[in-house]
Amino acid sequence: MNWGKYRNIIFYISTIIVFSSLMYFFIIEGQTLEIGEKIITKTNNSSSWDNFLESFKTNLHHPLALLLAQIVTIILVARLFGWICMKIKQPSVIGEMIAGIVLGPSLVGMYFPEFSAFLFPKESLGNLQFLSQIGLILFMYIVGMELDLSVLRKKAHDAVVISHASIIIPFALGIGLSYFIYKEFAPEGIQFTSFALFIAIAMSITAFPVLARIVQERNLQKTKLGTVVITCAAADDITAWCILAAVIAIVKAGSFESSLYVILMAIAYVFFMIKIVRPFLKRIGDLQAGKSTINKPMVAIFFLTLILSAYATEVIGIHALFGAFMAGAIMPENAKFRTLFIDKVEDVALVLLLPLFFVFTGLRTQIGLLNDGHLWITAGFIILTAVIGKFAGSALTARFLGINWKESLTIGALMNTRGLMELIVLNIGYDLGVLSPQIFAMMVIMALFTTFMTGPALDFINFLFKSKKDEDESPENDAKYRVLLSFDHPESGSTLLKLAHDFTHKMNGNKSIAAMNIAPVNEMHAYDINEYENEQFKNVIETSNDLNLEVTTLFKASNDIENDLTHITNKGNYDLLLIMLGKSMYEGSLLGRLLGFTTKIINPEKLLNTVKGKGNIFNNSPFDDFTLQILDKTQIPVGILVEKEFTSADKVFVPIFNLSDFYLLEYAKRLINNNNSQIIILDVAGQIRNNIEVKELIRSIEQVAPNHITLYNEKKIEKEFLNSQDLMLISSKSWKNLIDTKSIWLSDIPSTLIISNP
Asked: What is the mean pLDDT of residues 178-197?
């Protein structure tokens, strides 16, 4: 018995001793082989500490260590500025663009030159550039996949007219602008044609990914306007990249005649991709139909297609990014398949590699070069030309096609969004030597300004055309009892709907139930948003049909779920918000507290709330951070469900710990009236028996529904009793008390609805 207990330990120790002795023997014997050999030994008079410091400094400047330090810094700064922009209702890409400029010579390089020289030495920029190019190739692959070519084929008539007008008008204005700035700003030795073509294409580009996110976040995707503008942007993207490929060919060849060979090769490449590669990929994609994962051989085929396509266009002379875009566009059109593949690529491309491109662009952007009023006037003139060409060109064309003024101006504002796509074009021009550092800085400022103005412009247009009908869209302040349930998973929505039904079942026309799903905008793509929404609401719709319950569904794509949820809740005149409690596997442990601490440090909003006194950085809250945000910002009662296989609220247990918990009786009363629930009130602190007002309330409930409410005075509750109940109603303060005291109830409680009263 003892041998069995210590066998593993004895074997472990014996193994270590035997093989350590063997290694020692070979080392001693091996040293005898050095006799007669010219062995060079390092002699150093420095101390061991000095040797360590010297080695440490060498390791710090090692190319790999430097690259990793750059990546960590870039991701942290990009996430910080992206978060700030989301909070002011701007796309996070603007923050990432600003982060790049901040880390470049325009700010950090100017005020902290030693730090900038240490983190971004010139010899390290080559590695950063190549890694950022890999990120761009993956990004353009995603952009190509996000294009829904079937929509283009069906709805391209008006959209293509608007799209091409939004290209040709700013393109012409860009050529005209080049005429006035060529002499002063074109690099030496660059032909006017090359310079003018790059300025023109930079004026004409639209950022399809940013535009698609804005359309989703503003719930325009289901409207005719949303469809038109997404189709416009898609057609614009395809056209602009084809023009850019031709422009690159002309610039590299030196003249249009010389570029014809490159253009002909590019046409042959496109024909080959569409007519041969695309059908081949479709057959492979069909093998994947109905599967929830993509196997590794299939992933390898699609990545090889991407790399070979990018390689082909780079060799042809029209840039690898066009090949990546083309590879994405010819992917199998099955929405589920594309979503699965994008999920494999997107996180690495957008979170890890793409911020490197923004910073590399920022390192090239020297706003300090604009050190004269005349230069800022020129920059302003460039911005004005860009806005007139793209905004006015798109809006006036849409109006000419019979679209009303509000929607025409909205199309103009959205098509004027340039974002990351503009930076890609500008960097290509800079690499080719067509754009000087001064004009590059001006164009980067233009890209930032036109992207930043999209949100305020849309808000101003909505304000300008606000009608009385729009003002009356909010729910009327009538006698209906309004319940809003917000869920993140389909199963949660179904459970919360059953609970809402129990509270309102017999109210007939005097109730209103809305089910809301707010999804992260970054998890969806323009082509599959309708499928995503249908999937999210599938269980809710089925449950509502089973219960014969009328439900209003609300769907929104969001960059800031907490704030959007609280805004909709407060604005909608609801009486109760129902949500699920988020759970943590580390809750209550030391590791959980440490993880909570680091999460607050990394998350700027939590740290800001701590500084403002709204939170404690070591807070041991009974709620997850999302729920705390909701409780802090909502102005109506919130019901937080801790779900344990909830089906219905037939037997309900309501513990009353103190006088402030008495509002729970109103919810108990609703369950009795609408669901015939059996309610058991536990007078935990013995305060009910001495309170006439509460006893009268219980008596009035008994008169309406005899034998449906029971008052317990015992403090001890048995496990069997808790297991027999369907639901426990408890106040948020009492729930915190149960968590803090590690109540023995917690392991046996039924599904629990924690109700917070504002």
From this structure: 91
How many structural domains is the chain composed of?
Answer: 2
Bridge partners, residue 638, by sequence: 577, 756
Strands 751-756 and 638-642: antiparallel
Q: Are residues 256 and 353 in the same domain?
A: yes
pTM, whole model, 2 decimals?
Answer: 0.72
Q: Read out DSSP for 363-381?
A: HH--GGG--SHHHHHHHHH
The pLDDT confidence band at residue 606, using thresholds 50, 70 and 90, is: low
- DSSP 8-state class, residue 388: I
Rounded CA-CA distance 483/503 in Å is: 9
**How many residues are listed for the chain in this entry?**
758
Q: Does a structural domain hold residue 332?
A: yes
For residue 567, how many other CB atoms are within 10 A of its CB?
13
- Please say whether the beta carbons of 610 and 600 come within 8 A: yes
**What angle separates helix 92-103 from helix 354-364, to the nearest 10 degrees?**
50
Query: Which structure tokens are listed for 404?
Result: 């009303």
Q: Which residue has the higher pLDDT, 758 or 304?
A: 304
Walk across the sheet containing 552-558 and list its strands: 552-558, 511-520, 481-486, 576-580, 638-642, 751-756, 727-731, 651-656, 678-683, 709-712
State which H helix or E strand residue 485 sits in.
strand 481-486
pLDDT value at residue 591:
36
CA–CA dist 91, 84 (Å, integer): 10
d(C-alpha 634, C-alpha 533), whole Å:
25
* Average pLDDT score over the chain: 82
* Beta-sheet strands, E only, within 583-713: 638-642, 651-656, 678-683, 709-712
Scanning the structure block, which residue is given the tokens 């943590």? 584
SS3 content of the chain, % helix, strand, coil (to 5): 70, 10, 25
Is 54 domain-assigned?
no
Q: Which domain holds residue 272?
A: 92-464
Region of poorest pLDDT, from 158-162, 264-268, 451-455: 158-162
CA pair distance 600, 596, nearest whole angstrom: 6
Whether 405 is covered by a domain: the verdict is: yes
Q: What DSSP designation does 507 have?
A: G
- Which CATH number goes with the domain that contains 149? 1.20.1530.20
Cα torsion at 451, 452, 456, 461 (round to 10°)?
-20
Residue 437 and residue 375 in contact, taking contact as beta carbons nearer than 8 Å:
no
| Ramachandran category for residue 15: left, alpha or beta (phi over 0 → left; psi -120 to 50 → alpha) | alpha
Decide which of 714 and 542 is more confident: 542
- Residues 698-755: pLDDT tens digits? 777 777 777 778 877 765 677 788 888 889 898 888 888 877 776 767 777 888 899 9
Cβ neighbors of 556 (< 8 A, separation 6 or more) are: 217, 219, 516, 517, 518, 519, 564, 568
The Cα–Cα gap between 584 and 412 comes to: 46
Is 471 inside a domain boundary? no
Find the helix packing angle between 373-387 and 149-185, rounded to 10°: 150
Q: How many Å is the Cα radius of gyration of the chain?
A: 32
Q: Kindly write down the DSSP assignment for every residue of 513-570, as one continuous string.
A: EEEEEEEEGGG--TTTHHHHHHHHHHHHHHHHHHHT---EEEEEEES-HHHHHHHHHH
Kind and range of the H or E run holding 270 = helix 256-272
What are 462-490's pLDDT values in tens digits?
Answer: 888 876 455 444 444 456 889 999 998 88
279-302 tens-digit pLDDT: 998 888 877 666 667 778 888 888
Whether residue 348 is found in the same domain as residue 259? yes
